[in-house]
Amino acid sequence: MYCSRWLLGVLQLLLWWSITPVHAIPPRDPVQCNRTACTLYNSYGPWGDRKDCNVKTVSYPTTEEELRSAVAYANKNKLKLKVASKFSHTIPKLACPPSHNSMLISTAKYDSRIDVDSANLEVTADAGVGLRELIDKVEEAGLSLVAAPYWEGVSVAGMITTGAHGSSWWGNGGAAHDHVVGISMIVPANESEGYAKVIQIGAQDQLLNAAKVSLGTLGVISKVKFSLERGFKRSITYNFTDDGSVENNFVEHGKKYEFGDITWYPSKHTAVYRYDSRVSVDTPGDGVNDFLGFQPNEILISQAIRTSEKLMEGTKSVNGNCKLAATTLAYKKLIANGLKNNRMIFTGYPVVGRQGKIQTSGSCLYSPTARIDASCAWDPRIKGLFFYESTAMFPVPKFGDFVKDVKKLRDIKPENFCGIDHYNGIMIRYIKASSAYLGQPEDSVVIDFNYYRADDASTPRLNQDVMEEVEQMAFFKYGARPHWAKNRNLAFRNVRNKYPNFNKFIAAKKQLDPQNMLSGDWSDEILFGTGSVRSDGCALEGLCICSEDRHCSPSKGYFCKPGLVYTEARVCRYSAPSSSNL
């Protein structure tokens, strides 16, 4: 009863927020320093292993020569080197250097140059330029960037180096790096060359296939050149319908709509098909995509939702999760998930707008006034939402069977999926085969899903066995590849075997960074197979797959058990004291 009243209060706040103007607190600088050292955070707060990323020296170059000098300093002094942007939305510790004998470069102030070449339909930008700034400059010239991730809080270098993407099987596809035609990169050099040099990697250079998605391990990206197209608009309609044929419809949907996607809410037996196609620039409409999840949320609302989640977790209230999921889905349908016909409100389908206003969003990043009543919902300063994000990329022939397996697991107890559905369900997108060595080697289907993360690493989660079984089913039964900038650590297990050109990437790394100056603990674990230590409770946070009960939380009733559908999975499942273990 108390949980229902609490949810009612949250819904009243949501209604009030929907009619009240709010202004967001800008995200904090991910690099925080005191008198003796600095700490690199990601935008969600704790890293996957909950260990701080400490570094003694941070450089903030503003020009390419200053960037080259910083790399030279690191090389001359035999320091390990990593690069971070002003956004830091990467979940794994890609940007974290070793804690000793290392330094960090931030590109937060290296963001002044954006050069649009209208004649050749290209744009070149400094590595630290934000995606929104790039898009706005391109659109001012009457042109459009075809591919971009749905979240605009990324730098151009960070976006490509981690394989960020939107959704498309058309043309060059939905991944931003597959629209890159040139990169300026600073690599270590010998003393006679000044310890660091700038190399130009052009469209015909085989090194571009390594540099486009490099995880920051080949060199330091200085500038990125993208191909462009003449400006265009898009027309979007969401169709909320039954999920009965998702496994049969996904291929046709991806082929029919250039920018289509599907959002699946398993517990509600609902699929939302996004009909999203290119239209002429003279088509009437001034719409924008202000995705609900990326809007500035009232701080009180974010805190209230988090408190309600913790209450439901503590009382194991599946019904509370389901009420929140149902209300969230209904609200998304009412407001078209943040689409706005006239930049202000949603009045009906289709929503037509310029590519630059439709392709990506992130209004919670900006503060138009001095008010501080809202923020991004996950801002760690406000103790709001705190969650995991799992992202898996499937070969097309395997995806339909994966959906069928998830439905079998769902049908055992549909409400166990409410914890996924009250975030954003399971988003399904499309990625075309890429020439990048660490890009997708074949046309692929991508899923993303978010779910609750506890404040404390030792605290198990409600129905966590379900999320773990879906996760293991994706990555191990069906061989899906993990998104490089998302996921829990276990998703990267044996990842090198999933990329046929992985050895070519390693060869490029040995060529450009023979001393492994740009390596770190996390990248070494992925690229060179160094393992992590298994410990008590390691499976609770995805640091391992359980093989013993101690990897879960037996003292709190969570034991290592086989999956219910994918029986080779090993998951942490709750067994009530009064009942026998499953």
UniProtKB/TrEMBL annotation:
Catalytic activity, reaction form: L-gulono-1,4-lactone + O2 = L-ascorbate + H2O2 + H(+)
InterPro entries named among the record's database cross-references: ALO_C, FAD-bd_PCMH, FAD-bd_PCMH-like_sf, FAD-bd_PCMH_sub2, FAD-linked_Oxidoreductases_BP, GULLO2-like_C, GULO_Plant, Oxid_FAD_bind_N
Domain FAD-binding PCMH-type: 51-231
Pathway membership: Cofactor biosynthesis; L-ascorbate biosynthesis
Root EC class: oxidoreductase
GO cellular component terms, A-Z: membrane
UniProt entry keywords in alphabetical sequence: Ascorbate biosynthesis, Oxidoreductase, Signal
Record carries keyword S-adenosyl-L-methionine: no
Any one biological process term the GO annotation gives: L-ascorbic acid biosynthetic process
The keyword Oxidoreductase appears for this protein: yes
Family: Belongs to the oxygen-dependent FAD-linked oxidoreductase family.
UniProt-recorded name of the protein: L-gulonolactone oxidase
Provenance organism: Hibiscus trionum
Higher taxonomy: Eukaryota, Viridiplantae, Streptophyta, Embryophyta, Tracheophyta
